[in-house]
């Protein structure tokens, strides 16, 4: 049983020595690291550092090929889709990179009412979404934390036509242990929180006011969430604030800490890069901007270092870069996103957005594009609803068995999307892909999957195993 949380000290000396060792490498060392990565056991600090230094085009090609291979062996060719739902941009913190920061007068403030949240949910359901990530600034309207709980309840209770939201993940400020227990009671999927930067001096420089100035309260949030029984937690770094190499190795230490303490690491890792935000110079001019080349590299390193953890790619990135990262290990993507509260119902109101987006395409277009690239867009929520979370999920994922569930569930939920929401063009592309993928499956999985897809085509909904 876990005991009370003390803070997590990131070992800077350990990071510095890994980066120093990683600097001196040759092609043989790089290939040895890639061979180890193919065994799916993850990588240590020095091995991650070796990959950070790869620049030779041939070696980079081998490196990216390995990342793709590892991703496909564990996750198959599916990509899970979701949309963020911003319920409020009220915030008492002063994060210099964010448009929602308290002292920003250029932003229109808004906390959605429960009716407005229901309206947003109907809009997303009618587009075909089944998974949402609920997001809020750190200042709840009058009713305090119960606003968050009521909002989750509203999302689950709002159906439209034959659709509904089946999994609500949340990205909200760190909570106390008791509040995390209440959040767990609200049947959330993943609790997501980004440390922003693991580098304390940088953290202090960019967080100037409000509760978020407390680095330790934030870095221990996942401990409290897991102590409260939330099995699936999602970590992340806001890339662009400090050196990405340092951040990856520090993130690794955070993950190791959770694995040591709870026997299981995070369910997902998010890799947001700083995007322009109204009223933020830091967001316009990131102190340590990550180039596209380094960004591809960092995604591939994460894929090989922690092969069983999902990687999330948001619409902060352009369609083109997102496409490239699918092959490097990304397993979940958002689509058709708005980052302003009420943004789905009122398409004109961008003045309340948190940051600007790189990919503005509607869900249908993203789904078609993903399918044309040969990936199966999945709306599956089965693991969470069958209690396959935390250590149980990892036990299944480790031998690659999760694919036996994901493949049929992914295809059945994709068919559900195609039957209920897709344009004619997307439906044609999608159904051809489903036929193609089923033909590659071995028995008995092939017959079982075909049956599930046929059942959906015949009108059954929410079919999963
Ligand atoms: N307010 C809570 C918090 O800060 O943890 C949760 C929601 S906050 C809206 C979600 C995330 O948005 C932050 O953790 C941060 O990483 C990201 N973010 C803030 N400003 C950004 C920007 N300019 N570009 C990209 N991502 C940004
Ligand atoms: Fe508030 Fe979160 Fe934005 Fe910071 S990142 S200003 S806490 S919404």
Q: Helix and strand layout, with pairings?
A:
Layout lengths: L11 H12 L3 H11 L7 H8 L4 H19 L2 E11 L25 H14 L3 E6 L9 H12 L1 E2 L2 E2 L2 E5 L5 H9 L5 E2 L7 H7 L8 H5 L1 H7 L5 E4 L7 H19 L5 E3 L10 H4 L7 H14 L4 E4 L5 H8 L5 E3 L28 H10 L3 E3 L3 H4 L4 H8 L4 H19 L3 H17 L4 H13 L8
Helix pairs in contact: 1-3, 1-11, 2-4, 4-13, 5-6, 11-13, 15-19, 18-19, 18-20
General description of the model:
This protein is an alpha/beta fold and 465 residues long. The protein has two domains: 72-383, Alpha-Beta Barrel (TIM Barrel); 403-457, no CATH class. 47% of the residues lie in helices and 10% in strands. It has 20 helices and eleven strands. The chain has helices spanning 12-23, 27-37, 45-52, 57-75, 114-127, 146-157, 177-185, 200-206, 215-219, 221-227, 244-262, 281-284, 292-305, 319-326, 363-372, 382-385, 390-397, 402-420, 424-440, 445-457; strands at residues 78-88, 131-136, 159-160, 163-164, 167-171, 191-192, 233-236, 268-270, 310-313, 332-334, 376-378. The strands form two sheets. An eight-stranded parallel β-barrel has the order 1-2-5-6-7-8-9-10, surrounded by six helices. Helix 1 packs across helix 3, helix 18 packs antiparallel against helix 19 (424-440) and helix 18 (402-420) runs parallel beside helix 20 (445-457). The longest helix has 19 residues, at 57-75. Iron/sulfur cluster is lined by residues 91, 93, 95, 98, 100-101, 137-138, 173, 212.
